[in-house]
Design goal:
Blueprint (H helix, E strand, L loop, with lengths): L1 H8 L17 H16 L5 H12 L9 E3 L8 E3 L6 E4 L6 E3 L1 H13 L1 H7 L14 H12 L8 H24 L15 H12 L20 H31 L11 H12 L8 H4 L3 H11 L5 H4 L6 H11 L2 H13 L3 E5 L16 E5 L2 E12 L6 E9 L11 E7 L5 E6 L13 E12 L10 H37 L1 E2 L2 E2 L4 H35 L1 H26 L1 H4 L5 H10 L7 H23 L1
Parallel strand pairs: 5-8
Antiparallel strand pairs: 1-4, 2-3, 6-7, 7-11, 8-9, 10-11, 12-13
Helix pairs in contact: 1-6, 2-7, 3-7, 3-8, 4-7, 7-8, 9-10, 9-12, 12-16, 12-17, 14-15, 14-16, 16-17, 16-18, 17-18, 18-20, 18-21
Length: 632
C-alpha cells in the first residue's frame, strides 16, 4: 500500500498532461484557510487547542508551497482494493479530493490514520486495524516510501503536514457531531465524535512543536530489503530455537535413521522430532510460510527459511516442509470451504501429511502439457488413471492425501486449459504406492521419500476437483511460485552450513607443511563461496520482495532467476567443501554428500534449469522490447 502511494507521487504530471489539474500552487495556505472556516462554522464550544493549532498552522506555512505532484487527498485503507489472492493493490478509489500539491500531505494523512488506528477502530466499531497481525511500524512504512521515491528520509516540514492532518480530522469530527446535533446524521455513533476533537487537536499541537530531524533508525545491516518488526522478532526466536533445540538433536536424528535403515520403522520419524514440533507450536513458530496465518511477508520468511535450511529436518519441526507447505498454500488459495475443512485444517495442525503428484515416468514432464494421467468425469465422480513418480512425501505414515495433476477431456480448449487438479485420499481403492526412488542412492526417509504411484480406476467425488476443470496450470503457477522460492531460501542456509564445514576443516587440517586455508586455492574457494552466497541471498530477497509487491505472476522472472542461480551456486559450494574434506566429505561422517544430492535434485525439481532459462530469456526480450517501444 505504501509503495502504491510512492508510485502515485512519482508520476510525472507533465507527461500525463495534468498541468492544469486542480487549483494551482498555494495548496498548504488554501487547505489551512478552508479547514479553519469549516471548523469555525460547526464549532459548538470553544476548544483552545483547536484555536492554537489553527494559529500555528497559518504562521508556519512551508516556504515552498508550490510543489506540483498528483496527490490523492484521502489516501487511506478504506479507499484501497487489494488483489483477492496476491499481495498487491489493484485499485485506488475516491479521487474527488485529488489535486496537484505536496506529496507529504498524503503521506502525513495516511500516517495520522495509522497512528490513531485504535481511536478510529473504536469509532468505526471494529474498523480495519487489528493488533498482532504483523503490521509494520510507521517508521518502516515511511522508510519504504522514501526508498521507493528515492528521496532523503529527512522529510522537510514533516511536523506541519502531520499537524495539518490532525487539524483536518478534528474538523471533520466536529462537523459530524454538528450534523448529529442538527438531526442530520443517522449514525448512532455520531455523538462519539465530539469526544475526539480536543484530543486530536492537542496531539496535533504537540507534533507541530516537535522537531523531526531524522526518522527513527531501522537496522538494515546485512539486508537491503527491510523486514517488518514482527519478522525480526520471529527470526530471532527461530535462531534461538535452532541453536537451543534443533541443532543439538541433529546427531540423535541421524543415528535413528542409520539404525533403522533396514527396518520397517525407516519411514517413521524419531520421537525427538515430534517433541520439537510441539515445542515449536507452543512458541508460535508454526506455519511461518503462509502469510495469511503467520502475518509475515515473503521477505520476512526468506531470512527465516534460510535459518531452517541449516538443518535438514528443521522445516519439518516448524511445519514448513515441502511438499506440505506448497499443498497448504494451494488449498488456502484455491480450495473450497469443504476442501479446506477436510484437508487444509489438519495439514495446518500437522496431524496429517500430503504429497503432490505431477511428474510422470512415460513423458517429458518438464513440458507439463505432456502430462497424460487422465481425470474423467463420470456422473458425480471423477475417475483417475495414470502413473506418477517423484511424488515426495508419499512414504510418510502420516501422508493421507495426494493432489494430482491430470488431463480432463476437453480437446477444444487451449493446451494450457486441458489439465485439472483433484484431491485423492491415498486410501482410495486403486491407488498403488509402487516403490521409493533414490536420489544418488539416498532414499530420503526423513522427508517421506520420493515415490512412484499408480492410479488405476481411482474414483473420487466430483467435489474433490480444485477450482474447476481446466484450471490445473493456473493453480500450478500459484503453487510453484512461492514453493520454488522457499527451496531457494533454504538453499542459502544450506550453503552457509557447507561454508562453515569447509572453513572448519581448512583450519584443522595440515597438508604440505601448512593449514589447508593457507593454500591459495582453498582460500579462493572460501572467498568465491562467500561471494556466491551473498549474491543468491540478495536475488532471493529481491524475488521475495517482488512476490510481496506484485504477486507471483508479476515476479515470474525473478523467481525463475533464483530457481536457476541458487541450486547452481550451492552445488559448487558443497562440491568445494567436499574437496576440502577429502574422502571424509563423501562419507556419512559429514552431511555434505547428502546435501549435494538434495541440492543437485533441485536443478530438476519444479522444472529443470533449461526451462527456467528459456522463460527468463523470453521475459527479458519482452521487457527490452517494451522499453525500446516506450523510447520511440
Amino acid at each position: 500500500m505504501i509503495e502504491t502511494l510512492a508510485r502515485l507521487h512519482s508520476l510525472n504530471i507533465h507527461s500525463l498532461q495534468l498541468e492544469g489539474y486542480g487549483t494551482g500552487t498555494g495548496y498548504c495556505k488554501r487547505q489551512v484557510s478552508t479547514w479553519i472556516k469549516q471548523y469555525q462554522a460547526t464549532a459548538h464550544q470553544d476548544i483552545p487547542a483547536m484555536n492554537q493549532l489553527s494559529d500555528w498552522l497559518m504562521k508556519n506555512l512551508p516556504d515552498n508551497d508550490n510543489e506540483e505532484s498528483l496527490i490523492h487527498g484521502d489516501f487511506q485503507l478504506g479507499n484501497i482494493i487489494f488483489h483477492p489472492k496476491e499481495s498487491r493493490v489493484i485499485a485506488v478509489l475516491d479521487w474527488e479530493l485529488s489535486t496537484i500539491g505536496p506529496p507529504l500531505s498524503d503521506l502525513a494523512y495516511f500516517s495520522m490514520s495509522y497512528l490513531e488506528r485504535r481511536n478510529i477502530a473504536r469509532l468505526c466499531q471494529g474498523s480495519y486495524f487489528q493488533e498482532d497481525t504483523g503490521t509494520p511500524s510507521l517508521e518502516e512504512l515511511i522508510s519504504i516510501y522514501c526508498r521507493c521515491r528515492g528521496i532523503n528520509p529527512v522529510l522537510p516540514n514533516w511536523n506541519f503536514f502531520l499537524a495539518l492532518s490532525y487539524f483536518k480530522i478534528a474538523g471533520i469530527s466536529q462537523g459530524i457531531y454538528s450534523r448529529y446535533l442538527l438531526g442530520n446524521n443517522t449514525s448512532e455513533q455520531s455523538f462519539q465524535f465530539a469526544k475526539v476533537v480536543q484530543p486530536l487537536a492537542e496531539t496535533g499541537l504537540r507534533l507541530a512543536k516537535r522537531t523531526f530531524k531524522t526518522l527513527p533508525h531501522i537496522d538494515t545491516t546485512r539486508k537491503l530489503l527491510v523486514q517488518t518488526r514482527k519478522g525480526q522478532e520471529v527470526l530471532s526466536n527461530v535462531k534461538h530455537f535452532m541453536k537451543q533445540h534443533i541443532l543439538p538433536a541433529e546427531k540423535e536424528v541421524i543415528e535413528f535413521y542409520i539404525q533403522n535403515e533396514n527396518s520397517v520403522d525407516k519411514w517413521k520419524k524419531p520421537l525427538v522430532i515430534d517433541k520439537l514440533k510441539e515445542m515449536a507450536k507452543a512458541e508460535g513458530l508454526w506455519n511461518l510460510f503462509l502469510p495469511a496465518v503467520s502475518g509475515l511477508s515473503q521477505v520476512d520468511y526468506a531470512l527465516i527459511a534460510e535459518e531452517m535450511g541449516k538443518c535438514f529436518f528443521a522445516p519439518d519441526v516448524f511445519n514448513c516442509q515441502a511438499p506440505d507447505s506448497g499443498n497448504m498454500e494451494l488449498l488456502h488459495l484455491y480450495g473450497n470451504e469443504k476442501q479446506k475443512q477436510q484437508w487444509l485444517e489438519p495439514l495446518l495442525q500437522g496431524s496429517i501429511a500430503s504429497c503432490f503428484c505431477m511428474a510422470e515416468p512415460n513423458v517429458a514432464s518438464s513440458d507439463a502439457t505432456n502430462i497424460e494421467c487422465s481425470i474423467q468425469r463420470d456422473g458425480d465422480s471423477y475417475v483417475i488413471n495414470g502413473k506418477k513418480w517423484w511424488s515426495s512425501g508419499a512414504g510418510n505414515p502420516q501422508c493421507k492425501v495426494a493432489i494430482v495433476l491430470g488431463r480432463t477431456a476437453n480437446t477444444s480448449a487451449s493446451r494450457h486449459k486441458q489439465h485439472s487438479m483433484v484431491i485423492v485420499p491415498l486410501n482410495t481403492p486403486g491407488v498403488e504406492v509402487v516403490r521409493p526412488l533414490s536420489v544418488f542412492g539416498y532414499v530420503d526417509h526423513l522427508h517421506g521419500g520420493h515415490f512412484e504411484i499408480h492410479f488405476n480406476q481411482v474414483r473420487v467425488p466430483a467435489i474433490n476437483i480444485i477450482l474447476g476443470e481446466g484450471r490445473g496450470f493456473e493453480i500450478a503457477q500459484g503453487r510453484l511460485g512461492p514453493g520454488r522460492i522457499h527451496h531457494c531460501m533454504r538453499i542459502v542456509g544450506l550453503a552457509e552450513r557447507a561454508v562453515q564445514i569447509m572453513c572448519q576443516r581448512a583450519a584443522e587440517r595440515v597438508a604440505f607443511g601448512k593449514t589447508l586455508y593457507s593454500h591459495e586455492v582453498v582460500a579462493h574457494w572460501i572467498a568465491e563461496s562467500r561471494i556466491a552466497i551473498e549474491e543468491i541471498r540478495l536475488l532471493t530477497l529481491k524475488a521475495a520482495h517482488c512476490i510481496d509487491t506484485v504477486g507471483s505472476a508479476g515476479a515470474k522472472k525473478e523467481i525463475a532467476m533464483i530457481k536457476v542461480a541458487a541450486p547452481r551456486a550451492a552445488c559448487k559450494i558443497i562440491d568445494r567443501a567436499i574437496q576440502v574434506c577429502g574422502g571424509a566429505g563423501l562419507s556419512q561422517d559429514y552431511p555434505l554428500a547428502y546435501m549435494y544430492a538434495l541440492t543437485r535434485a533441485l536443478r530438476l525439481a519444479d522444472g529443470p534449469d533449461e526451462v527456467h532459462l528459456s522463460a527468463i530469456a523470453k521475459l527479458e526480450l519482452r521487457d527490452q522490447a517494451a522499453s525500446l517501444k516506450a523510447k520511440v
